[in-house]
Specification:
The chain is mainly alpha-helical. Helices cover 58% and strands 6% of the residues. The protein is built from 10 helices and 6 strands. The radius of gyration is 22 Å and the shape is globular.
Length: 339
């Protein structure tokens, strides 16, 4: 029981980082239906900016965090204006290839200037290294700080989206950009503001994970970026609460798997049970069943929302007739309710 509680504590800290990155993915997708694969490298830039502030300029943790968020905010806007805005009317594959190219550009530009060596953050203040023992569970002040900062940023994001004029503009553009333009909303500035918000959250996540693991390198954004993208899809990409839940879910599952393994030491128990019955397969992303003449394709379902937006659910009823539907992908409160 103590081990389970310990992994939950560790997963909450790691999930906070994934949730912050996933929020950027889902906001950008909700606005312009773009999967910004360079988002994980913005997180890497934030980690290096925090390192430079703390190691070379001898700034405090909170000051370095704010500076990293500010730098990543500017970087996100520059990426949107230079790389994505000229391709807004282009095909999705062109924009996707551009996003991958921007990701490599950020990685190897950083490697050119700082080198490929792994760097460690300077020693943290004593108050960030305090730990408490609650039975068999160890909670550190750094874990509490990471969780508290992440929750505070998520609450601030919700307030911006729900209560401000720019937040209403974001919801309007995500629902219908042309109609929002006719209503006098500056669509270009709204999209840039969305990139700025997402990049600021990614920069904060970079500093938090850097002080938690005390290790940074120019390629550190690739794997966490992919995990955060999975978290956004799992929770329902385009939904802010879904990205939050998906991030914490991925973080908790990762810590459980790394801390306990899929099998125990004797190999006698499984943490996940798989039903191998051909019509009751419980752990697999999709299922195919022969039903008369047709085949039923079941797409993976997100935790929130109706279905996965990138994989339309198709149900061929015969070899000659098919019935397909493409689900909605709008995010946040962009439903049928008036703004």
């Amino acid at each position: 029981m103590d081990q389970i509680l310990q992994q939950l504590v560790n997963g909450a800290s790691l999930g906070s980082v994934y949730a912050l990155i996933a929020l950027g993915y889902t906001m950008i997708y909700g606005i312009i239906q773009l999967i910004n694969f360079a988002h994980g490298d913005v997180y890497m830039v934030g980690a290096y900016v925090g390192y430079a502030c703390m190691a070379h300029f001898h700034l405090g943790f909170f000051t370095s965090l704010v500076v990293a968020m500010a730098v990543c905010t500017v970087l996100g806007v520059v990426i949107e204006r230079v790389a994505y805005k000229p391709l807004r009317k282009s095909s999705r594959i062109a924009v996707l290839i551009t996003a991958i190219g921007v990701s490599f550009l950020l990685e190897y530009t950083m490697m050119f200037f700082v080198g490929a060596d792994v760097r460690s953050y300077p020693p943290l203040p004593h108050w960030m290294q305090v730990s408490w023992h609650l039975g068999g569970v160890i909670i550190t002040s750094l874990q509490v700080l990471i969780f508290a900062i992440a929750v505070a940023l998520m609450i601030a994001l919700q307030l911006i989206v729900r209560r401000t004029r720019l937040g209403k503009a974001m919801r309007a553009v995500s629902q219908d950009a042309d109609a929002a333009r006719l209503m006098g909303i500056n669509v270009n500035n709204t999209i840039s503001f969305t990139f700025a918000l997402g990049s600021a959250l990614a920069g904060a996540a970079g500093v938090l994970v850097a002080v938690y693991y005390n290790s940074i390198n120019p390629l550190m954004g690739m794997v966490p970026g992919l995990k955060a993208f999975i978290a956004a899809v799992l929770g329902g990409i385009g939904l802010l609460p879904g990205a939050l839940i998906g991030g914490y879910f991925i973080g908790v599952v990762e810590t459980f798997v790394s801390g306990t393994g899929f099998l125990d030491v004797q190999g006698r128990r499984r943490l996940c049970a798989v039903d191998h019955h051909p019509r009751r397969q419980t752990i697999r992303p999709a299922r195919q069943e022969r039903e008369g003449e047709g085949v039923t394709m079941v797409a993976p379902r997100p935790l929130l929302g109706t279905s996965a937006p990138s994989v339309p659910s198709c149900t061929p009823v015969s070899s000659a007739r098919r019935c397909c539907s493409r689900p909605s992908t709008w995010w946040c409160s962009c439903s049928s309710r008036p703004m």
